UniProtKB/TrEMBL annotation:
SUPFAM superfamilies: NAD(P)-linked oxidoreductase. Residues 90-392 form the NADP-dependent oxidoreductase domain. Residues 25-49 are annotated as: Disordered. InterPro entries: NAD(P)_OxRdtase_dom_sf, NADP_OxRdtase_dom. This is NADP-dependent oxidoreductase domain-containing protein. Pfam families: Aldo_ket_red (PF00248).
Length: 411
């Protein structure tokens, strides 16, 4: 039974209130989801696999667990008895929605298996990421046929529901959750991350209460949020919704989550899952010592993510300061023998309340399994962290310019 959340810490959060709330919704551009029919090929024989260290299940209630002796690969997000162990580096599937190249369904599923076999077994998607949920359904059926049962237990599929701000009836919510369950071919969603466009419409609380009821009925394992700000997260917790995490934009350039949001998370145990952490690829050697403001002088900004995060760079401090950041990251990366992007993700994983960070995958088009796995063994020392923080702090405070987490979608 759901009741008010018993958390005395919330009563001392008055100093967290006061951030402006944006009340005008702006629709998210997206490719309409289309069903992908399952492959009809006969099941191949189960192969014998030799696999590296894996993201394996962790004890419920623990903030972070080690899968084996060595690097920390797993975090457990939890609240009120609900828990889910996730790989600390998640495979982001926004790139399946169009704009990054044509996705071949069979190649994409093969690529998902390769990531999972390499220990990168948590996938993040959404109802509006084109065929992402359908691809996951195809993938999970390949896992069921071709991998042992203990391997299946390690696979996690996190999805999002991004409804229009209409009346949130029980039937409307349930129909949408059932649609994702069908597309992903699972009895229960591992995690449902909920987004809401317009805070002036309090229907998000109705939706979350129905989502919590569906969790209690076994259709969802954990309830989470995406792009909610600190004030709304506090209201949601005070209404007894067992939120385990909030997925937000977070990078060396965008450190907003480490302000009010991280403080509330520390007090309540809610964790952060971050996206935009490598800024669509801007935080890489490819853009070091380049000038993208001159036509054809630098690499093209030819994907939705590159264009989105270039705008974030412009707001933060511009291309010249960004080059200073890349040069600093390159120095650290050479010291440790890893790419710039690996350093960028490790820096964010070291931040307060961060359970996991997203690295986008262009399934069947390119892969970065080795560099991604290097994140787990990379240890940034105090000098590394301080040098990166020093450049990050030279940029503008995006909290003052944009607002709290998710406000970029409600301007």
């Amino acid at each position: 039974m759901r009741g008010p959340r018993a958390n005395g810490a919330l009563s001392i959060l008055l100093h967290l209130r006061g951030a402006r709330a944006r009340t005008h919704a702006r629709p998210m551009s997206s490719t309409a989801a289309r069903a992908v029919p399952p492959a009809a090929a006969a099941p191949p024989p189960r192969p014998r696999l030799v696999r590296p260290a894996r993201c394996t299940g962790a004890a419920a209630g623990a903030a972070v667990e080690t899968a084996t002796a060595g690097p920390v690969r797993v975090a457990t997000v939890s609240n009120s008895g609900d828990s889910l162990a996730i790989c600390r580096v998640l495979n982001g599937m926004w790139q399946t929605s169009g704009g990054w190249g044509r996705i071949d369904r069979d190649d994409a599923v093969d690529a998902m298996l390769a990531y999972a076999d390499a220990g990168l077994s948590t996938f993040d998607m959404a109802d509006h990421y084109g065929p992402a949920e359908d691809l996951y359904g195809m993938f999970i059926n390949r896992v069921r046929r071709e991998r042992p049962p203990e391997f299946l237990e390690e696979i996690k599929g996190l999805t999002k529901w991004v409804p229009p701000p209409v009346k949130m009836t029980r039937s409307y919510v349930e129909d949408n959750i059932n649609r994702s369950r069908k597309r992903m071919d699972v009895a229960a969603l591992d995690m449902l991350q909920f987004h809401w466009w317009d805070y002036s419409n309090p229907g998000y609380l109705d939706a979350l209460k129905h989502i919590t009821d569906l969790k209690d009925e076994g259709k969802i394992k954990t309830v989470a949020l995406t792009n909610f700000d600190t004030d709304r997260l506090q209201i949601i917790l005070e209404n007894g919704i067992p939120v385990v995490s909030n997925q937000v934009q977070h990078s060396i350039v965008d450190m907003r989550p480490q302000q009010r949001m991280a403080e509330l998370c520390q007090l309540t145990g809610v964790k952060l899952i971050t996206y935009g952490t490598v800024m669509g690829g801007l935080l890489s050697e490819k853009f070091l010592d380049t000038n993208v403001s001159i036509p054809f002088a630098g690499p093209p900004l030819n994907t939705p993510s590159l264009q989105k995060y270039k705008r974030m760079v412009d707001v933060w401090g511009g291309w010249s300061l960004f080059q200073t950041l890349l040069q600093t990251l390159k120095k650290v990366s050479l010291k440790h023998g890893v790419p710039i992007a690996t350093v960028a993700v490790r820096y964010i994983l070291n931040q307060t309340s961060v359970a996991g960070s997203m690295v986008g995958v262009r399934l069947g088009l390119s892969e970065h399994i080795r560099d991604t796995n290097a994140i787990f063994s990379l240890e940034l020392d105090e000098e590394d962290m301080n040098s990166i923080t020093e450049v990050s702090n030279k940029g503008r405070d995006l909290m003052d310019i944009i607002g709290d987490c998710g406000d970029e979608y409600r301007a």
